[in-house]
Design brief:
The complex is a heterodimer of chains A (about 110) and B (about 900). With about 110 residues, chain A is of the alpha+beta class. Chain A has one domain: Arc Repressor Mutant, subunit A, CATH 1.10.10. In chain B, helix 1 packs parallel to helix 5, helix 20 packs antiparallel against helix 26 and helix 26 runs parallel beside helix 29. Chain B folds into four domains: about 60 residues, no CATH class; about 190 residues, no CATH class; about 300 residues, no CATH class; about 190 residues, no CATH class. The longest helix of chain B is centred in the C-terminal third of the chain and has 44 residues. About 0% of the residues of chain B have low confidence. Chain B is built from 30 helices and 23 strands. In chain B, strands 1, 2, 3, 4, 5, 6, 7, 8, 9, 10 and 11 form an eleven-stranded mixed β-sheet that branches. In chain B, strands 14, 15, 16, 17, 18, 19, 20 and 21 form an eight-stranded mixed β-sheet that branches. Chain B has a four-stranded antiparallel β-sheet with strand order 13-22-12-23. Classes of the chains: A alpha+beta (about 110), B alpha+beta (about 900).
Amino acid sequence: MAKTDIQGTLDLLILKTLSQTGELHGYGIVLHIQTASAELLRVEEGSLYPALHRMEQKGWVNSQWALTETNRKAKYYKLTAVGRKQLQEAEKSFEQLVKGLRAMLRYA
Amino acid sequence: MSLFRRISNLFLRSRMDREIDAEIRSHLRMRTEDNIASDMLPDQARRDALLRFGNPTVTRERVAASDAALTLESIGMDVQYAFRRLAKSQGFSIAAILTLALGIGATTAIFSAAYALLLRSLPFQHADRILGIYETHPQIVGGAEVNFLDYQDWRRQQTSFEQVAAYSGSSSDTMSLLMQDHGEQVRTVLASTNLFSLLGVTPLLGRAFVQQDDAPNANHVVVLSDEAWRRYFGADRSVLGRSIDLNSVSYTVIGVLPPEGAYPSTGEFWMPLSLMDKESQTRRVGHTLDVLGRLKPGIDFAEARADMQTIAARLAQVHPATNRNIGVLLIPLREQLVGALRPAILTLLGCVVLVLCIACANVANLLLVRSATHVREAAVRQALGASRLRMFALYLSETLILCLLGGFLGTILAAHTLPLLRVAFAHTAGTDPSLIQSIQLNVPVLLVTSGICLFTAILFSLLPMAKAPNKLADSLRPGDRSSTIRRDWSRSALISTEIAIAIVVLFLGTLLIRSFQKLNRVEPGFRTDHLLSLEIKLPQPRYEDSTPATNHFYERLIDKLRQSPGILSAGTTITVPLRASHAMTRFLIAGAAPVAPGALPMEQVRSVSPDFFHTMGLELKQGRVFEEKDIESNSNFIIVNQAFAQRYLTGKDPLTSSILMNVLSPHPEKMPVIGVVSNAHDLGVETEAEPELYFPGFGTHAVLLIRTNADPKSILPEVRSAVREFDPNLPIYHVETLDEVLSDSLARQKMIAILLGIFALLALTLAAIGIYGVITYSVTQRQREIGVRMALGATRAKILLLILRESATFTGVGVLVGLVAAFASAHLASALLFQTSTADPVSTCVSIFGLLVIAILAAVLPAGRAAKINPVEALRSE
């Protein structure tokens, strides 16, 4: 049975973003999700940070302060090995969710 | 790393807050810059960034909350805040903590006793299957000791028990142990060889008895209790196999029992049952054995009883002369050990739980009042987003502090009460002393105490939650207090319950105090002051009952004592007055219609010295008392008391009557009555004066009574030296004054009366505080209403009545409900009452008036304050 909660989805988006971009700050993650999903997905910006903090607690990501291209200080997040594994699992369970949903819709 | 982080986060909350802030700020700045880059005005750009982001403060909180360790910190903050709130309202906190401490302390103390006596497992294997087996006789209340031959028949014929064992161990069974330079009187128990295997007790050292020890010509062996081993042999392991001298006979020590395994716990030296005197082993008249049986698994109490009753009926048919009236009584071991204390403990426990209920109701009430004054604070918190769980945590931390502090103080209180309780219980005859010593504050008791604390705390925190307003807006609206407050039924119900419970406790307390007063007023029938009692046991076979040597010893001793200036007179008997005794004999009035042997009457019998009556202070009503020559000539005279004359010699002149004794032997003896003496409550003040028969004579065991003209204990050295003069190694033991015996016999009743009296006062005080609190609160809430009423012309008297009427309602309901409950519960305590009805009118009146007076007093103070309210101020204050 796939995990179907929204939080899981947000986690997946963040993990995927970090795996595609390597190292990124929160604002960058928001932008990336927006552009990569062709403006279809928009994350409520505030809700990103509790998720990031929680993932850091779990050891999926780690963070450090660095300068942006515009010379601003920002906190950069990076996937850890555990995070990478977690991403695989999250992707798998998301696939299942989608498959399940599609089956449901087709049936109806 | 993550753990370290959590821990460091805990201490670095502010640093973390700063970091989260910085991150959020950097996010907002980047968004604003991007916005400006896409041609927004700076103000608009910032506004858009904020809108997209949501509330930064909430986000910061949520980020912090995702850290589990920080929840701990928020709890820490709650606790700190709770402490501050409690410290701010000191009066409330102290009242609540003291109330809880009294309730919890009293409950803990009484529960410790209940646990030790009724719940804790006994130190024997399968203790729940062990029963005491007694014989019954119509003349004896409860169970009596068992005859040796009956015991043998039971053992052989029964089918319900795995084992049946017997021992003979009344407290007067003592022997003289020869130490290096002096004699010690030690308590001995004759036990069947299987007693310890029945109990599942394995000796600490050496072995228990085996079958061969009981053989008629076996070596004399003895098993020691742990205590005796320590006291007389300094816990020397080499004592095993050593020969010791008891009553000038040598015994070999074969074993030492573990500290908790001694049974009966008063025993010090155990010997095989075959050493019992031959007469008791061959005749069906003496009843001296205590019998235990361990039920076979699967056999229940009723089956065993039926089995034993069948055997008793069979014995009654085969031996009608001795056994016709003898039945069987089974008593579970615990019941037997706890004895008369069970109803006392249960009554005390019931009352103390009731007091705890009042205490809790009071604290609940105080908390309700407080939460009502904090309604708005609670509403603001909820409006700002506090979850119900969070509110609960806040209330819980506050009540938990109260309950834990109360519990802590209560435990200290209990720890100081327990020694007093043990002393009070220790005087209760029929309760095993080691069981009483096991009344301690131990882990299970403390667990229950902390359980009570936690339970009450959680209950109390739920209360304000239940009262929390559903519509926040209502409680936030300024000046929301309507001028008449909706009557708060939950509070009235609470206070009515409190009053009802107080009535129950007060009623039971008064009942037992009245009962004790009546008991205390009973005249024992003799003067207990300036009277000393001590016991002497002359070693056999040098002395035997009624031999010249024995008679000579006592006569010389009594003569010697009489010469002492401090001693008025001295006499001997065989039982300590005011102590229960089964020293009874069958007889027949000469000339009365013959009865079947089994239907012979049976009454208390004493063999006494001539001076016994004078020493006791019994009045001679008719005839004469014994003289020394009656003893020397072994004359067959008898003296009876008035109760005997009334029951058996009505319409006859006692002095011309004779009584047939030894009626079961082939040659009954006819003994003329030479005197009638006044009655004494010889078996204790609780029992009526029993008919008694007195013989002249001295036995090897005697209770020496000495009437003095000064403090009875002060003459003890003279008594010791007098005894030593006639027999150097003979110790005297069980020394006590009759005043002590009397107060001991009342100790249990006194203790219950005092404790219940204290509980009743406690209940009353707590109820008063409760009433006072509720009325005071109601007056503060109705201040405006009172102001309006006064402005409209209500007089002060009317206001006073208005407030008093409020308290009259819940007091009335409480008193009525309480009385019904009190009458119902009094039946449970009826076993404790002496000549006092469970519906005693005096106690009823005392309870009602006591409570009414307290209720009026508690209500008048705040009502008076209400009547003094200045209407102008009251109306302006809103």
